[in-house]
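[job 0417] fold request received: Uracil-DNA glycosylase
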Amino acid sequence: MSVNIHPSWKKELKEEFEKPYFKQLTEFVREEYAQHTCYPKGNEIFSAFDHCPFDSTKVVIIGQDPYHGPGQANGLCFSVKEGVPHPPSLINIFKEIQADLSVPYPKSGNLERWADQGVLLLNATLTVRAHQAGSHQGKGWEIFTDAVIRKLSARESPMVFLLWGGFAKKKTKLIDAKRHHILTSGHPSPLSANRGYWFGNRHFSQCNKILRGLNNKIVDW
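[job 0417] inference complete; emitting structure tokens
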């Protein structure tokens, strides 16, 4: 796995790529992709970064793991490829946007359109073995993505972090809350959403209100 990532991120994360853990992680990922079916495709592992350069990032959404079913994952958290049926969490995200912003439910579950507007859709673990959720956790990806969050937190211009569910909320400790805006809620998965921890959080209108206050272009969700 050569680190083929947007030049702005390559510059910011240069030190991470040279650390021993990242070299071990690269070796692990290379072997996994050689021996098993893994997602996303090799050239899409860093898609979230390629669609959202470091200096353009104004919103960060943190997921846990890529989808592990065939043809779903495209390197952006919660996003699926064009024409793929929407997974349950994504359905609930779109339902909340529909209720919050009075916009129609979208046909496409491909969230590259958000990323291209400055929304970093960051999974904590960037790869997974087919049909085995969490199979690439604890191999070094989390160290890398925590470093990404710290880099963004250290940036001068304020951003909005959307932390959904217990896993994402644990990343609060990596973020300078004095500088940045953090919105938290339950996870959009059916388990959490059906218990009343997701719907009605109005994160999308709140996020745009914050961006407007920062004289930043709002996100067309």
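[job 0417] notes: DSSP finds ten helices and six strands in the chain. The chain has one domain: 7-214.
[job 0417] exit 0
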